[in-house]
Write a structure and sequence with these properties.
single chain; about 220 residues; alpha/beta; 6-stranded mixed β-sheet; 4-stranded antiparallel β-sheet; 7 helices
Length: about 220
């Protein structure tokens, strides 16, 4: 599913923020990515969802070498990736329902094809009564859940989540972990970047630890 070989990344003429990062994500696997603030976790996720090119090394996604792939071919690869951003990236002029349904509309699906699934998903993440609300009136936790629902609604092949439980209480955090686990059982490969040790303790998923730009694996 994902292969990094000796990947390095620097911004401009600065020092490398990632150095010789090598790892594999098998199809259908579930991993956490952790490490101190500033270790390079967000930079690594940016490489994975193709928002950033590596300075050096090989990155393969879904069997394609994306490090050297023409930019015109990247959108087709991105359609298989769901992303939960720390800053949510919701569209303020769309309701919660329409924000979550946006990836399905982009695929050309009609509302009658996805309405039931979107409503059920919003009920699951506790937003059933906020379905017609707009992002400016949502709490931080509600925005977080909307962003998570949008990322998983299309059952992506690869799901990347950057601190997905950072704005929710522990009970909802456990519920969201169950959602990720169920999605993983359906075949989605999942990588969650988090500082939430309580969340990681609830799962037997292995961890990648990133520190000072270097990666180690913890079973």
């Amino acid at each position: 599913m994902v292969r990094f070989e000796n990947v390095g990344l620097r911004y401009g003429m600065g020092p490398e923020v990632l150095r010789d990062v090598s790892f594999l994500l098998e199809d259908g696997s579930f991993h956490f990515l952790t490490g101190p603030s500033g270790a390079g976790k967000t930079s690594l996720l940016r490489l994975l969802f193709l928002a950033q090119r590596p300075t050096r090394g090989l990155i393969s996604l879904f069997g394609h070498d994306v490090a050297s792939m023409p930019r015109s071919r990247l959108p087709a690869i991105r359609r298989g990736i769901g992303v939960v951003f720390q800053e949510f990236k919701l569209l303020d002029h769309l309701t919660v329902f329409d924000n979550v349904a946006l990836p399905l509309r982009v695929r050309g699906m009609r509302p009658d094809m996805f309405r039931t699934d979107v409503v059920e998903l919003l009920d699951w993440v506790g937003l059933g009564e906020r379905i017609n609300a707009y992002p400016p009136v949502l709490s931080g936790g509600e925005k977080q859940r909307t962003a998570i629902a949008r990322a998983v609604v299309g059952r992506p092949r690869l799901l990347l989540a950057d601190e997905p439980t950072g704005n929710v209480d522990p009970q909802l955090g456990r519920r969201l972990l169950r959602l990720f686990t169920e999605l993983n059982k359906l075949g989605t490969t999942i990588l969650i970047a988090t500082h939430d040790f309580h969340l990681m303790e609830q799962s037997k998923a292995p961890k990648f630890v990133l520190e000072d730009g270097e990666m180690t694996a913890v079973p």
